[in-house]
Design a protein that fits this description.
This protein has 384 residues and is α/β, with parallel strands linked by helices. The protein starts with 16 loop residues before the first helix and ends with a helix. Helix 10 (206-213) links the parallel strand 6 (188-192) and strand 7 (217-222). It is globular, with a radius of gyration of 21 Å. The chain has helices at residues 17-24, 42-49, 51-60, 63-77, 83-86, 95-108, 123-130, 140-144, 172-184, 206-213, 247-254, 260-295, 324-333, 364-383; strands spanning 29-30, 88-92, 113-118, 134-139, 156-160, 188-192, 217-222, 235-239, 313-317, 336-337, 339-340, 355-359. A seven-stranded mixed β-sheet has the order 2-8-7-6-5-3-4, sandwiched between helices. A three-stranded antiparallel β-sheet has the order 9-12-11. It has 14 helices and twelve strands. Helix 6 runs parallel beside helix 7 (123-130) and helix 9 (172-184) packs parallel to helix 10. It has two domains: 12-41 and 275-383, Aspartate Aminotransferase, domain 1 (Alpha-Beta Complex); 42-271, Aspartate Aminotransferase, domain 2, CATH 3.40.640. The structure holds pyridoxal-5'-phosphate. Pyridoxal-5'-phosphate (PLP) is lined by residues 34, 94-96, 121, 123, 160, 164, 192, 194, 224, 235. Pyridoxal-5'-phosphate is lined by residues 34, 94-96, 121, 123, 160, 164, 192, 194, 224, 235.
Length: 384
Amino acid sequence: MTVPHREAGVRLSTANLTELEIRAERVGLNLADGHARQPLTPGQEKIVDRLPELFHTARRAVVPDLDREAQVTYLSVLGQHTALTEAKILSCYSSSVAMEIFARALFAAGLRRVGLIHPTFDNIPDILRGVGLGLRAVPEHVLHRADTAVLPDLDALFITTPNNPTGGVLDEPALAQWAAWCAAHNVVLALDTSFRAFDPRAQYDHYRVLADSGVEWVVIEDTGKVFPSLDLKVGFLAYATGGRLPLWRIYTDILLGVSPMILCLVTALAREGAGGGFAALHQTIARHRAGLHAALPQPTYGRWPDPGNRISVERLALPPGLDAGRVSDDLRARDVHVLPCGNFHWADRAEGAGHLRIALSRPEKDLHAGAEVIRDYLAAASAG
Ligand SMILES: Cc1ncc(COP(=O)(O)O)c(C=O)c1O
């Protein structure tokens, strides 16, 4: 089968990250995308066994009630209590759809200058640029240190927390400082918290901090990185009403809502998460991370540059002299798919040229098999 959207002869490492992820879904060991593909827990298996029942419940119920239940259950399990009173929440097919709506709303409001965390997943800058917004890179460490003095003039500031690919989390004091700075400068503060379920440090009540500050804010949440539900998922677009962005109008230009069946599934999975599923997920990801580190000990096979990372992907800093685009092409030829990190550094691809990103949300045996191929490759590369 042909790969969509790539012209013949284009080197794969120049593709965007999603194109590489699509290729990884076809053949070989897919350690590329950050979607949840780990095995179901016993509790999740029971929910999947109940899918026909959920379907019939969804058919009978009032959809806005199911929508609210999914939002309340998911967000309260993750500590976001203030969202339930202070936010209007729009359920979307995915976080990328929420992102597209947010980007279009910024453009429609004439807010065109966006400061964006650097590095981050490339579909965020691609969507923002795609609607005609101008981007300024804001290094992740500037955001984490809340170094407000160095920012240029902006209309919006966008922060991914926990960040993909580094796992870096914006702590509560830093969020409060950015919220105060944005409020003082009439800047919209937007967060992508798609990975927050993996890291308890990202589960303080962000909405309380935002609401208390008086800033105009938007938060994009996502169940898709968390539950291994074959991409039956929801992205939530949350915001306080009364701001400048026509989010509701643009949302209704694009969709009516998410399938009530998916809303029922998200509610059931979030309840199971609260009852031990999230704790099990944290253990699984920690075990997979430790196994990967053990298979590729530093400094022989490079370095693990993100010691605090708890999300479901991990960066490997390759040994000096190796180019991640080349290495990931060579690994693909050996049927192992990982991502070269150049595109995460959307303002300066060279900054990511020495890093690979490896997904941990996979069956453990796949991760072990992939790590062995990577180890053999790196051993041969350093010998030759
Ligand atoms: C931080 C972040 N936000 C949003 C997305 C987009 O997710 P989706 O394609 O499920 O909409 C991704 C994808 O990996 C991501 O890493």
